[in-house]
Amino acid sequence: MKTIQTGIASFGMSGRVFHAPLIHCHPAFNLKTIVERSPKGSKQIYPEVEVVTSFDELIQDSTMDLIIVNTPDTTHFDFCQKALNAGKHVVVEKPFTVTSAEAEKLIHLAKEKGLMISVFQNRRWDSDFLTVQKVIKEQMLGRLVAFESHFDRYRNFIKPNTWKEEQGTGAEIVYNLGTHMIDQAYVLFGMPHSVFAEIGTQRTGGKADDSYNIILGYDEVSVNLKASYLVREEGPRYQLHGTEGSFLKWGMDPQEADLAAGKLPGSDHWGMEDRQLWGKLNTEINGLHVTGRVESLPGNYMMYYESIADTLQNGTELVVKPEQSLDVIKIVEAAIESNKKGKKVLLA
């Protein structure tokens, strides 16, 4: 079976920590080329890789099958469009695009060209989220009535020389952390019928938004997504409440930290959380009151690229479909509109 020749558009954090290691470790892919406009050390880590200095050089390679577009958010549409027009399949970092209109154009173009495009929603394979899905699917809490998710950090300073700290469309936290959290809610509950959001800047001297509280409207369950850069004492990452009980989950999936430290998928205990981070369950099952820890399922970001390989080599259906990521951008747009107008926005 043909190896998928793959190029990465940038060797910044996402390229170095996520895409390059995952592609390098997956036997279906060959990490052929990386774009580095200034030296960032990719050749030292991957001696066989070819280094080019521009995106145009990357897509002009006739042997290239797949392009990873992991450049700043505002470039996603332009770079994806160029890659598709050059006949390349595309994986694009979240957010898909800045606007839903741009996302719709890329989906249409990919279909027209007979090419694949997918958004890197790796946090569908976080250890904690996989465990939350299991708790809900197995109805451990009875009928779920409330779901609250947090993605909090403590960074009380403004990081210099990064576009993510600048004011402007695409830099907002709702495009960054928000697209992960909205995608997870979308996987669990589908498209909401309404969105209410408060988005703001909490840090002194901040230009870009760094906090949000987003309420997604569903008929049967209350869904609340929150994030802030000023949370020094971390609360539960997930809070689930149902007619029979509750599930609380602290901590963060270990894969990003392990990848940043140089550990690779397949190593011992990959994606497994420490026991003290296992979620707390307090519920009633078949008339029996049950309390205790729920062992977290192992996380596995490699499953994203497993899906990409299966689609490109075997024609199977994508797990992260572009139409789903289009819906996520529509929800982001509704959240921004809600914040501006100070009222709930209805979705068709």
Please describe what this structure looks like:
There is one protein chain. The protein has 348 residues and is an alpha/beta fold. The protein has two domains: 4-120, NAD(P)-binding Rossmann-like Domain (Rossmann fold, 3-Layer(aba) Sandwich), CATH 3.40.50; 123-302 and 331-346, 2-Layer Sandwich (Dihydrodipicolinate Reductase, domain 2), CATH 3.30.360. It contains ten helices and 15 strands. The chain has helices spanning 13-25, 42-45, 55-59, 76-85, 100-113, 127-137, 173-189, 255-260, 302-314, 322-341; strands at 4-8, 29-35, 50-52, 66-69, 89-93, 117-120, 144-150, 194-200, 211-217, 222-228, 238-242, 246-249, 279-285, 288-294, 345-346. The protein has a nine-stranded mixed sheet. Strands 3-2-1-4-5-6 form a six-stranded parallel sheet, with helices on both faces. The protein is globular, with a radius of gyration of 20 Å. The model has no long low-confidence stretch (mean pLDDT 94).
Short structural description:
The chain is built from 10 helices and 15 strands. It has helices at residues 13-25, 42-45, 55-59, 76-85, 100-113, 127-137, 173-189, 255-260, 302-314, 322-341, and strands at 4-8, 29-35, 50-52, 66-69, 89-93, 117-120, 144-150, 194-200, 211-217, 222-228, 238-242, 246-249, 279-285, 288-294, 345-346. Strands 14-13-12-11-7-10-9-8-15 form a 9-stranded mixed sheet.
